[in-house]
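Researcher: Batch entry, complex prediction.
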Amino acid sequence: MSSAELVQVGPASGSATLNQLRRVVICAGTGCMANGAMKVFEQFKQATAETGLQVILELREEAASDEVRLSKSGCQGFCQMGPLVSVIPDGILYTKVRSEDVAEIVVKTLTEGQVVERLLYKDPSTRKSCRGLEDNPFYSRQNRLVLHECGFLDPEDIREYMKHGGYEAARKAFVEMAPEEICKLITESGLRGRGGGGFPTGRKWDAARVQNSTKKYVICNGDEGDPGAFMNRSVMEGNPHSVIEGLMIAARAIGASETLIYVRAEYPLAVERVRRAVADAEREGILGKNVFGTGLSLKCEVMEGAGAFVCGEETAMIASIEGQRGMPRPKPPFPAQSGLWGKPTIINNVETLAHVSRILKVGAEVFKSIGTKDSPGTKTFALTGHVANTGLVEVPFGTTLREIVLNIGGGITDDAGKIWKTGFKAVQIGGPSGGCLTEEHLDLPLAYESLRSVGAMVGSGGLVAMNQGTCMVSIARFFMEFTQRESCGKCVLCREGTKQLLALLDDVIEGRADVGTLNLLEKLGHAVQVGSLCGLGKTAPNPVLSTLRYFRKEYEEHIFEKRCRAGRCRALLSPEINEVKCKGCGLCIKACPTSAITGEKKKPHHIDAELCIKCGACATACKIHAVEGI
Amino acid sequence: MAALPVVVDDAERFENVCRILSRFGRRPSGLIPILQAIQHEYQYLPEEVLTFVATSLDVPPARVFGVATFYAHFALEPKGKHVIRICDGTACHVKQSLPVLNALREKLGTSEKNKTTPDMMFTVETVACLGACGLAPVVVIDEQVYGQVTPERALGLVDDIKAAEMLMARAGATTAAEPALEESHE
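Model: Structure tokens for the complex:
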């Protein structure tokens, strides 16, 4: 079965009335909101009123066909091109819409049914305009199952979610299925945790189900702390009800009566939407006492994190919920045996839970038909960095890096954002616990096992593309600085080891390293992996070890030639004035904060290497680019 | 005479804290939401309030300080009127967020250690990935998100705030001066 059919299974009765009227959907994810999506929304309200179009803002049972429904959606994933406005059922996607453009859309598209050419997305490599999702390579090459509804459902409207078959799976789980059946189904589907570890979800549930306890908990892990990853944010913002539905099914499967959603505080919009969704579900009688008439009760709380990366780890998160410092503890006992307040607890990632309701609807076989044998289903990746199309990408497991970065991502760009055909250098996958993939891995199918074999991991799904102008030692240092800062301090090797690793990387970057540094980096890296309790420490050296494995030459250049080929490591730079180019205008002399530049007017100037602090002010000041090497 | 307003202020402060404590049922397990609510009220966690919370929850002050210092969101020092946060995520980093941070620090005279300007007008800090990576590099000023920020643009935004503050100060000065003038006429 193709994914298109799989999506079709979702919407239940009632969607016909929705399709009768034209809808204008304005993306209201964090990215588009920052670019002024709310102004565009307000402008639409005003402009449609002026032209006399019938506009409704809420979902109604009956609507006249000439009415236009204006609604907000969650993150549609194409953040860089925001604010996004799509017109349904015309299938038009407008990008970078400003409030000034609204009047034209209202007149041309909504009344005359024509397309406003200049607001369409242009493929940067072919220069072709794309009308909508079908001919836009960013969307057409994806397989959006979890994200599908983020694009058009109003995340603040529970009725709309229900009209599209929402909470049907939860009802089925409570009314028609026994807990064993649910666990068996999820195990059969092969669903694995999307948060990074890839542990089979069904087995985790089963372990908690068999525990004999009157109180059990389900926690949704929305503490997405990896820098450069925002998949969970998009799902919580765009379709919070799908997460709550997954949470309900999990609760039913293990026999829990209390659930909790732990959301990262850096995502204020996600916190707001999830809170609202929980309140709406309670009001509709979906959550609360006597769920679906079964006599079972189910509570759902929302807790905001307080800014600690380590709380993404299960046991640390439990400590945080209990009001303690978020420090992990040894496993076993696993949370499924003894978790929150010592009771059996399961913790699932946002994306994992968002998959659950679909599995109940379509069955394990259909779910398994996409992806690879060991890693079934789809995975969302946050594609960022030096690529033409940054945003949220959902593809089946087994998709190659080439497809994601070069085709969906539209190719590598330079610092100015222009396509750079030969610019590909590496992709960092899995954030601070992941590793680097290079040109040789472009055709590697991305899945849990294949990535582990090359020293990387799926992680939560951050993909940061880097061009040739990136210094890999600096990147390793960036991640090491992050994990060093976020180490909770419990294990000595993680606390002190990351600090020493960081100091060693500083030596390399600042030209103090010698022959022994690289060996020491490797040795210490392995020691930190072995001597740490939780995932943070066990994976903290990965970025260093992985760059050492694939970009060792670059490290050696820094150490032995005192040279950074990307020109990013300031201490290794040696700025010089090109005597042929220099016209002796004196601009650099004025700009230099340490008076290191001397020279007469109209004669080539000179930089005193002793005094120079390599700040680059001279290069910025020089209008004819005569300062070189910085 | 001078001490009186401070006393009133403190009493009011603890009254608010008491209200927050009651809202969370004075349970030690609710410590994090309690501190979040207090910080929401005061912009930071004053030391005497933390001790007060510890006494009210019947836990050692070390436990409360331990939690307050563990999480990055809790500030033990007051912040400036305008808080500028530079995203420190990977995407922002590879898209050159560091020059933006350095330019802001240089202009406002702040540093890694001293994040707030002496006049308490600005605080410059880095923040963990905000998940708006499509817009990298990202700067958040007083909850407003700005994407694709260059050092020049960031400095321009600061200038705008300074200009607005000047205008406000001037307007405030004239409105304050007006009744005084009327009084003098009488």
